[in-house]
Amino acid sequence: MGVQRKGGTRVTEEPEELARHPLQAILLADSFTTKFRPITLERPKVLLPLVNVPMINYTLAWLESAGVEEVFVFCCAHSRQVIDYLEKSEWFSQPNFTVTTIESHNSISAGDALRLIYERNVIHGDFVLVSGDTVSNMSLTQAIQEHKERRKKDSNAVMTMVIKQSKPSPITHQSRLGTDELFMAIDPQTKQLLYYEEKADHIKGFISLDNMLLADNPSICLHNDKQDCYIDICSSEVLSLFTDNFDYQHLRRHFVKGLLVDDIMGYKIFTYEIHSSYAARIDNYRSYDTISKDIIQRWTYPFVPDVTFFANSATKVEREGMYRAPEIEQSRSAQMGPFTVVGKGTRIGNNSKISNSVIGKNCAIGSNVSIVGSYVWDDVTIEDGCELRHAIVCDGVIIKSGAVLEPGVVLSFKVVIGQQFVVPAYSKVSLLQQPTMQDSDEELEYADSNSGILDSSISGTMDKLNGEMTSEPASELGPGGAGYVWSISEGGHEDEWRHSVAPIPAEKLAEAMQAIEDDLELLNLDGSALSPSGELKPDYNSNDSEGDDDSRDDTFEKEVEATFLRAVHENIKVDDIILEMNSLRLSYNMTSADCAGAIFYAMMKLALETPHPAAGELYKNVASIVSTWQKLLKFYAREIDDQIEVILKFEEMCLESAKEFSPTFSQILHLLYDKDILEEDAILRWADEKKDAEESDKVFVNQSEKFIQWLKEASEEESEEHN
Question: What gap in Å lies between CA 313 and CA 330, rounded to an integer?
């Protein structure tokens, strides 16, 4: 049953009455965070372009497709910009979908926002609570149905939280979205959330649970492999709880954790796990990068660049995930690499190379420019000979000839970078000076409540708002430069590389790996540790069943494949990817042979999935991939036993999952030998071990008979020479 409070009195509604209400949603347009500074000093986060579409359009388009009929958009910082944008868009004129804005200049947290919405008395039943930086394609039908069914049986079931599987990095203890490793305890039968901790102590594999939690719940699953999607199905009681508790500011840190420890009122939170659907929130620059790549790689379908929805223009998808909008001028000598998006009206000069990047509308890119893994927004000018690596460049920026943006750089609106100037890694540059006092994540971005997009002409107003400022002078940006390089606060360097669009530096991964190995040595972890799946159970080596081993092997292979594909698509250096593979090996307690087999499998699968009209083309795919990544495979296939594992894995593929390779087994075996990945001893030992096997097990030995004979003769000749 639905529950509301009016004047402190609890009023209960019958389910039949509740069912007649349209499905409503609250969309928080404010991020209530400082993680996107300095950009959000000038523009609200929800209007920042995500693959050339304002973020809020992804959220609204999904809510409309999911059957939501009425959305209340709460705006505070830069509220005028958000309201003006929505009024000029088509969102205000959609049939059966109402968008209403609620404006406030005093709210500094999500809690304040929900208290104000409660006062307006606009929510009349269960509602969906999301922020305007959410991207999803999930159906809400089943989640809402489960929530309503629980409410009928237990009126204290006030919220259902959407989650999905997402294993954090065992090195950095971060998710792929750059968020902290999350620990959740969930009742496996009822799906009730029992424990929620975002910043657990990572020393290292242990967390503290209240004894009463274990005593009161006969069955608990403890997870560190779940992602909070920040999509909540709420009863109207949630709003009154915020009103009754003014110390509730943050949705998770205060509200969720507050309800979990409150044993007086007995309110409950449940979880709903999605599997094949997509849902994620843009919380920092790394999640901005990750979700952008997911959109380009079509995980968010139908919300992808070539499918028309609000505010995106028609874009043609081509091979290798390249998207081109109309009216692009591209030199014949310019090259566009895989997973790249180019917006309408952009011009690209001679011999320029762009890969794994998003280019906005009406940009002018000169000749001999290199752009890798970067996000260039609208109306940007990049002159000849510039280099951009894993950077964000906002609207109206001018980068003069020969300038270089090192990884992690963020250039805010209309900044000018002088000729030949090198912007150091992780620098943030703005026309606005940097505040001396940094606000906490609970506080809003600075904003003039009556303004639109800010420009340099109102920096005096910003001075008055922010107090005393300190930044480097504009001359530090090279000849003709304009802007201020913000300094990184003491202790803030780690946040920069953790939350950047740039790949985590190899030296940081190496440091983290060494710390893990040191901790494992000190702790001498036993069977009470957390397993890689996040469940509390014995170590893999202690009497695991064969089924558990198979499941673990499959999961490990999938993790290796995903890591390898990311290295391919993002041009990650081999040394860096080896560090990540080592962390997986450590996490899953695997051997070098296991790694060699899994990497080879991933390489061959990529060759198979790359277009090949004929068998000869398939071999060429294999040769190209092996040549490019031979250093990675060699690293794990150093010993003869490791190399034999590679051959056995290849045999298995040819017989089961990738029979297309069967006719070329001998050729590829020879290729691996020529590339010094397989030694002759490994091939001869493999063949020798098969000599007494049944004929069905000797298919590929027989196919490779001439090559094996040649190796034997060469080996005998070498022995004779030594004698």
Answer: 19
